[in-house]
């Protein structure tokens, strides 16, 4: 077991003391506000199952190995699917023997579900790039569409983990189907929230249904991605983006009041 050096130990202790003092003062001033903020933070950080690191990025050797297994297995599952991925495939990609893998995971299914969570978390992180820089809800939706189309090279290899897993697990693995369903719901909820905020800010027409708009955007993008992969041509993705952008401006954006 590694031991922190004296200087590092003092630094960590100082941070902890300062943090506890800050929380103590905040709690005395507005206890319910602190509880509310902590609950909100918990909901946001626990939206996805996969946890790449712990507090302060301090992981044990076992946790580091587990994370490395997930990161190496994720592209394999995303390309070949759950049924198509064999134990020998996992051993080859991780460099571990069967015992080395199953020392950290109780089953292939547990590894596959965490690999999906990891792949989906990367996709979500990229889809959110730059959307907070605009206060306009239509522009935020258009940015998410653009991210889906343009930021594909930095995702887990193999395509969209949601589409891949949903297709394979439709009549297959129940645990993976549940994960894909949860991921789809989180994506739908996020788009719906942007839409609802836009309606409230008079940026989006009040006749727009946030749920239906979210499903339209997701369905258009996922369908275009499928065609793009089959044809090995990116034009369907670019066409889908242009169509959605035109639709958002023409039919979704609130019209200015004319006197």
Question: How do the strands and helices of this protein lay out in sequence?
Answer:
Blueprint (H helix, E strand, L loop, with lengths): L5 H24 L1 H15 L15 H24 L2 H8 L3 H5 L5 H20 L9 H14 L10 H9 L4 H27 L9 H22 L3 H18 L7
Helix pairs in contact: 1-2, 3-4, 3-6, 3-8, 6-9, 7-9, 7-11, 8-9, 9-10, 10-11
Mean pLDDT: 82
DSSP summary, beta strand count = 0
Order of helices and strands: HHHHHHHHHHH
**CATH overall fold name of the domain at 117-252:** Tetracycline Repressor, domain 2
Report the sheet-strand fraction: under 5%
Percent helix range: over 70%
Q: How big is the Rg?
A: 22 Å
Q: Return residue spans where pLDDT drops below 50 for at least 5 consecutive residues.
A: 1-56
Question: TL;DR of this structure?
Answer:
The chain is mainly α and 259 residues long. The chain has helices at residues 6-29, 31-45, 61-84, 87-94, 98-102, 108-127, 137-150, 161-169, 174-200, 210-231, 235-252.
């Amino acid at each position: 077991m590694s031991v922190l050096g004296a200087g590092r130990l003092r630094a960590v202790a100082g941070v902890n003391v300062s943090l506890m003092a800050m929380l103590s003062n905040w709690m005395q001033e507005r206890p319910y506000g602190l509880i509310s903020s902590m609950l909100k933070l918990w909901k946001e950080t626990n939206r996805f199952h996969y946890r790449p690191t712990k507090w302060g990025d301090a992981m044990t050797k076992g946790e580091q190995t587990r994370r490395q297994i997930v990161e190496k297995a994720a592209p394999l599952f995303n390309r070949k699917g759950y049924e198509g991925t064999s134990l020998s495939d996992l051993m080859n990609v991780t460099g571990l023997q069967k015992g080395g893998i199953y020392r950290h995971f109780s089953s292939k299914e547990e590894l596959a579900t965490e690999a999906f969570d990891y792949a989906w978390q990367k996709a979500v992180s990229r889809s959110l790039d730059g959307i907070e820089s605009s206060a306009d809800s239509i522009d935020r939706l258009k940015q998410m569409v653009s991210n889906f189309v343009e930021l594909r090279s930095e995702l887990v290899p193999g395509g969209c983990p949601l589409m891949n897993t949903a297709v394979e697990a439709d009549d297959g693995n129940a645990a993976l189907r549940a994960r894909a369903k949860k991921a789809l719901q989180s994506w739908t909820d996020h788009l719906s929230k942007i839409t609802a905020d836009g309606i409230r800010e008079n940026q989006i027409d009040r006749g727009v249904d946030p749920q239906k708009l979210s499903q339209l955007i997701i369905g258009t993008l996922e369908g275009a991605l499928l065609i793009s992969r089959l044809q090995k041509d990116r034009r369907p993705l670019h066409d889908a983006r242009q169509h959605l952008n035109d639709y958002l401006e023409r039919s979704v954006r609130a019209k200015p009041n004319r006197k």
